[in-house]
Design brief:
By secondary structure, the protein is an alpha+beta fold. The chain has twelve helices and 31 strands. The structure holds MU-OXO-diiron and calcium ion (2 copies). MU-OXO-diiron binds next to loops. One calcium ion binds next to strand 21 and strand 25.
Length: about 675
């Protein structure tokens, strides 16, 4: 497909795009004091406005990133060169998925697949909450894997189900958030709720090398916002702002939602990050512009800073706890990181308030050189922040001690200075501006209002921090997906492009290689987008081919070889590149630093989540989220929004009676062996 033939229509899209469009919260106060001003003083306002800062200043300051150059042919870097040994996939966008030659990409789990012994078979025309609670949920995002034997041939897949797209999920309904949810019933709402949350599913690898679901696995379970009771722990547990009529203790909550990326701990538990929680809350009180009227809400300032209530689902019409007019504190009980023990189906998941409350994208862990647990976490909104959490105690063989590591520790927010230095600012009550005089009466207030506390500390407003992945050597990579609302006078060294449609990746090097350090350095690994278009201002290694560059990095992972893999979510903006979302191997070292190669790509309208490599590096799990929905007006020949009856693709079943189904894909090497080695 010729990119020039593709129409880019920002009105196209689904719930994900809707969340993004609605991400129009009142100005982050730190935008008034952007370090772009400092840069402008140093490099001159004219240079800044000409847009050359991104190249000249960054290169002058940080050196290593290669500048864009004429594109070499697709075969410029052979499979044997660099650290990723595979023949690069051809870019494109069509109705199905594609993987590099020599690999199989098989469907492992689809929305609706039975995952318990007593689960009914999926009946898309007769869905119910009861059935869905025994079936694989919707919109798989994070994927983790816990080996159950030494060979790694059995294990538990831990999968987040971020959100639902009612227009392609239910027959005869269409898009509801634009129709005031007229078609939504209690039954449909409950089915949506049952399709959110997570799944634990045992899988096993047969003699043929293929993975299969173990349907009667004793640890298989669904977690949902409809039925899963959770404990709240940490400094905000029990605080009056966490108490509701259903839970006067402020320590118990039903469920988790909008679980986007996540992480696994060194002791084998699963972290589910609650991202766009604001969208699930309702109010009946709207102002003349149709926006929530918060004039009677005591916590109106906090609600505005979090963009709540979003009214993106009708749950609050049928469940009072999601209506802030009736139960305002329920809002404070979402936006956290949840820990689940996948090996114990009876264990109660825990919401850890010590890790802060924001639109948590991911929660990837590592162990510092002093043995402490460190969790890197992004707050995915325009002009929001990058965080990390450092435990007080050290990771050990003692499960009881490990269980406290996410309860007792320090949360930090990042300030990226223009000289390439990085400072982690502690969010600790009583330190600096985080005092009662400034509205933070306790550590519970600091954590419930993490965004406001980070504002007060002067953190650096970023271009939508998505997943961040640490490596054991004190390095971490931060995916900054895009920010089309950053204006020319708001650019800074760490967010160097105005109206950034394609995002960039920042590399962090913690001082002394210690992930617990409070200082470090940063540089830009790549600036995304088409390097052949000068106005885009992309920066890749010059050997990167037409297939290899990408836009909007989102999820990322290291494989067992310590290589970085990045998956993309361009949302409805994929028409700007013409490329479907995919998985890329991105070089971080040596002469090829900043070089990227395409390994896998999604069917049209899907974003690519996961990725997760098994410890033996022989299996890669990928999650194709919302296939057939995003930006389908840009698909030549289709050019309309998808519905249940009329979707842009029916991946992966291609059954005329079945809509597209979000699915986990398992990638293995034909004939066996490690991936890309
Ligand atoms: Fe759910 Fe920020 O992606
Ligand atoms: Ca994401
Ligand atoms: Ca990740």
């Amino acid at each position: 497909m010729d990119r020039k033939q593709i129409i880019n229509d920002p009105q196209t899209g689904n719930k994900g795009e809707a969340f993004e469009a609605y991400d129009d919260i009142p100005a982050n106060p730190n935008l008034q004091r952007t370090i772009g001003d400092v840069i402008a003083a140093r490099y001159g306002r004219r240079e800044l406005l000409k847009g050359i800062l991104g190249v000249s200043a960054t290169t002058a300051l940080f050196g290593a990133t290669a500048l864009s150059a004429p594109r070499p042919s697709a075969a410029a870097v052979s499979p044997e060169q660099g650290r990723y040994n595979f023949a690069e996939l051809q870019w494109g966008n069509d109705e199905t998925h594609h993987v590099a030659d020599g690999y199989d990409a098989d469907i492992l789990l689809r929305w609706g697949d039975p995952i318990t012994a007593d689960a009914p078979e999926f009946d898309v025309m007769n869905q119910s909450a009861e059935a869905q609670l025994k079936q694989f949920g919707y919109n798989n995002d994070y994927v983790g894997f816990v080996p159950l034997n030494e060979e790694g041939s059995r294990g538990l897949l831990c999968v987040n189900h971020e959100y639902t797209n009612e227009e392609v999920m239910f027959p005869g309904l269409g898009r509801q958030d634009r129709a005031d949810f007229a078609g939504m019933t209690r039954e449909l709402v409950d089915t949506e709720m049952a399709a959110h949350g997570g799944s634990v599913v045992e899988i096993a690898r047969g003699n043929d090398g293929k993975w299969q679901v173990v349907r009667d696995g004793k640890m298989n379970r669904r977690i949902s916002p409809l039925h899963t009771e959770m404990t709240i722990d940490g400094p905000a547990a029990g605080h009056p702002r966490m108490q509701t009529s259903a839970d006067p203790t402020g320590t118990r909550v039903i469920g988790t939602l909008n679980n986007c990326a996540g992480g696994m701990t060194p002791w084998g538990t699963w972290l589910m990050a609650e991202e766009n929680f604001h969208g699930y809350f309702w109010t009946d009180k709207l102002d003349e512009d149709g926006k929530p009227d918060l004039s009677e809400q005591p916590e109106a300032e906090q609600m505005k800073r979090y963009g709540a209530p979003g009214r993106w689902y009708a749950w609050g019409k049928y469940h009072d706890r999601f209506n802030i007019d009736k139960e305002p504190n329920e809002l404070n009980r979402f936006g956290w990181v949840v820990e689940v023990d996948p090996r114990n189906p009876d264990a109660t998941p825990v919401k850890h308030t010590a890790l802060g409350r924001f639109r948590h994208e991911g929660a990837e862990t590592t162990v510092s050189s002093s043995g402490r647990l460190v969790v890197y976490m992004g707050d995915d909104a325009r002009f929001d922040y990058q965080y990390k959490y450092v435990s007080d105690g050290v990771v050990s063989e003692d499960p009881a001690a490990n269980a406290r590591l996410l309860s007792e520790g320090t949360l930090y927010v990042a300030r990226f200075d223009e000289d390439g230095s990085l400072t982690w600012l502690p969010l600790v009550h009583g330190e600096g501006p985080l005092t009662a005089e400034n509205g933070f009466a306790s550590q519970a207030d600091v954590l419930i209002d993490t965004r406001l506390a980070a504002d007060a500390l002067g953190a650096t407003p970023m271009d939508r921090p998505e997943d961040a992945q640490p490596r054991g050597d004190g390095t971490a990579y931060v995916m900054l997906t895009n920010n089309t609302r950053r204006e020319a006078d708001q650019v800074d060294a760490a967010n160097p492009r105005a109206e950034s449609s394609f995002g960039h990746i920042i590399e962090i090097k913690e001082a002394g290689g210690d992930h617990a350090a409070t200082h470090g350095h940063w540089s830009i690994l790549v600036k995304c987008g088409d390097p052949a278009l000068a106005e885009v201002g992309a920066e890749w290694n010059p050997e990167t081919s037409e297939n290899g560059w990408f836009g909007s990095p989102d999820n990322c992972a290291f494989d067992a070889e310590g290589r970085l893999w990045v998956s993309t979510d361009q949302g409805s903006g994929w028409g700007k590149t013409g490329k479907s979302d995919g998985l890329y191997g991105v070089e971080t070292e040596g002469e090829l630093r900043g070089h990227s190669k395409l390994f896998f790509r999604c069917p049209v309208g899907g974003e690519l989540c996961g990725p997760y490599f098994t410890p033996d590096n022989e299996t890669l799990f990928l999650a194709v989220q919302h296939p057939g929905t995003d930006g389908t007006k840009a698909l030549k020949g289709f050019e309309r929004a998808s519905t249940f009856e009329d979707p842009a693709t029916r991946w992966p079943d291609f059954d005329p009676k079945m809509p597209p189904r979000p699915s986990v894909v398992v990638v293995t090497r034909q004939g066996g062996g490690k991936i890309a080695v």
